[in-house]
Amino acid sequence: MLAEVVSCLVVIKTLISTTASYEWVLGNYGYHGVHNGLGNSKDFIDEWTVEVPGGEEVAQLVALELGYEYDGPVLGFPNLYGYRVHNKNRRTPNEHTSILASDKRIRWAEQLFSKKRAKRYPMSESDEELNRVKRKEYANSNSIEITSENNIHHKLFNDELWSYEWYLQDTRAAEGLPRLDLNVLPVYARGFNGQGVRVSILDDGIEHNHTDLVENYDKEISWDCNDQDSDPYPRPDEQNRNSHGTRCAGEIAMKANNGKCGVGVAWQAKIGGVRMLDGRITDRVEGEAIGYAWDKVDIYSASWGPNDDGKTVEGPGKLALEAFKRGISHGRGGKGNIYVWANGNGGRHNDNCNCDGYSSSIYTISIGSASQQGLFPWYGEICSSTLATAYSSGAYKDQKIVTTDTNDSCTLGHTGTSAAAPLAAGIIALALQANPKLTWRDVQHLIVWTSEYSPLSANYGWQVNGVGLRFDVRFGFGLLNAGALIATALNWTTVPQKQICERPLEPIENNKISSFGAKSIEIAINVKCNVKHLEHVELIINIQYTRRGALGVYLDSPLGTKVQLLSPRPKDSSNAGFVNWPLTSVATWGEDPNGRWTVVIQDLTSEGNFGEIGQMSLILHGTEEMPFHMRQGPRKYTNAFIESTHEEYIDNNIPFNDIELSKPMSVYETPYDVDDELIRNHHSKYYFPDYFSNSD
């Protein structure tokens, strides 16, 4: 009877979810607090997300009785529904929220606000920059460096632009030059191409009927969150502003040997798309997109985030963060979805991706860029949460990335960290084909253990952490090496169960800081916990300050690893400070966290800034038991890869049929004792306060 009443009186807009059921529990959503983007939004919108136990019919009836228009279930979140009102309604937003919160049938309600996006075109100096950007930078030239047609690798595929995919093959014109590519050809030689792996592009849609994508398109994992239908086809316009998702998709899954465009990194993987960047974006849209088809998708690739303007601090809202948590705990049959995220293009604005709660999340794999010359690009952001690097565009004459474009066309000009992240997603797809049992944390460990320093060694800032791993806040643990990663994955032992240790920092008597008095505050904490081998470290900070961008935050581990968690951002003049904000670092990966940690907060300007430090805590993620791949001692680095051809590397360095984990496939680097001191000193001079430079 209830169903009949509702169906007669209410016009229902029902969204049919194709995802599996999931028991969603309200609770602690993380530490992003007030930094959810509301401060950058002009106003709330006339939409609410409400939790109504009892099912859809009850939610419809409650909406009817309270005078709201029912807007369907929130995809992937049981008992969550959308309500809306017409703008002619005379109630204020607070009155609406109060009415919803006071109804006993409603467990929770939150009004939505618009998280505006700007697609990544050349960054504007205007104050009108929006709050989401597609991570793509455009250089001033589309000039192409023509590679030799005599190169043997040009003949591997017949695709028209394969010879321009310099980042997938050895394009050296002379033997004396180092190799600069992602080392995927040995993986192809062993029969891996991404088959059976499903990748979802979270973006502005994908042109799924494109000649180079249509055979790999996966309709089952695709959705349009902007128009609320099953077709993520991009909205056409004369400026081609909605080509971003199609470009990212092509990097991963362009079909091989069809004569069209190029070859995707995982050219037999299935590719889907969630269109969510071409309309009004809310926490509901992000939550639905990040979790769409979580029971079917293996890898999500995202090349967007909060504005890279050097003044924004923003992380996921409640639903988006819950979608991340659900994905890593329930996706892929409990092994966890893999989230690959572009780490940002705000380099020219001195931005720091630790102010981006998406790419710096412990649940995502944060990917930075390196140019064709192996250099840090002008748009790159420094960040202690960056895990690794893939190639992309760089300076004026550097080649860019080949991929599909809208209108069934091809492009030689995909750029920025937008282009780097899909390359990483494609390499991970190869790894999951090689070993489908890998968990989301296994993938992170594999990246740490096999990414390479030597191709990027000309860049200053490299250091060696307490267990011998190379790390740089520009590149993470180095350049992705597909051959090493897949070879190691084939004989991988799952990492031990994760442990989490949270320790509050002791209150300090003098918590005042200023740019004209006490310019820095040093806080020590002695840790004793069951985590013995670190993964991520989060420093949760609460700071009130008159100019947030003047602050730098530094962390020193018990084993002496020093890392800058937050660099000063000159354009950030906000007085909002930080409220329960996590600064994430992977620099101490593998270290024992037990002992004395030191946190330094510093303002080296002379601007008259002042404020105080509130409660802080250290969250240590890791394992009690040593991961198997670390038991044979520290990682060994050699020069084998950069000094060999692909053929030599396949024959001599990646014996796929006889892989021993005691000999991890790490293939770059110079001996430790040659340049450790030089690198450490160079790093200290550039990044750290004076007291760090004087340490041993």
UniProtKB/TrEMBL annotation:
Residues 1-21 form the signal peptide. It catalyses: Release of mature proteins from their proproteins by cleavage of -Arg-Xaa-Yaa-Arg-|-Zaa- bonds, where Xaa can be any amino acid and Yaa is Arg or Lys. Releases albumin, complement component C3 and von Willebrand factor from their respective precursors. The active site is at residues 203, 244, 418. It is an enzyme of class 3 (hydrolase). GO terms for molecular function: serine-type endopeptidase activity. Residues 225-244 are annotated as: Disordered. Residues 232-241 have a biased composition (Basic and acidic residues). InterPro entries: Galactose-bd-like_sf (IPR008979), Kexin/furin (IPR034182), P_dom (IPR002884), Peptidase_S8/S53_dom (IPR000209), Peptidase_S8/S53_dom_sf (IPR036852), Peptidase_S8_Asp-AS (IPR023827), Peptidase_S8_His-AS (IPR022398), Peptidase_S8_Ser-AS (IPR023828). Keywords: Calcium, Cleavage on pair of basic residues, Disulfide bond, Glycoprotein, Golgi apparatus, Hydrolase, Protease, Serine protease, Signal, Zymogen. PROSITE patterns: P_HOMO_B, SUBTILASE, SUBTILASE_ASP, SUBTILASE_HIS, SUBTILASE_SER. The lineage of its organism: Eukaryota, Metazoa, Ecdysozoa, Arthropoda, Hexapoda. Belongs to the peptidase S8 family. Furin subfamily. Its cofactor is Ca(2+). It is found in: Golgi apparatus membrane. One of its GO terms (cellular component) is Golgi membrane. This is furin. Pfam families: P_proprotein (PF01483), Peptidase_S8 (PF00082), S8_pro-domain (PF16470). Its EC number is 3.4.21.75. Residues 494-626 form the P/Homo B domain. One of its GO terms (biological process) is peptide hormone processing.
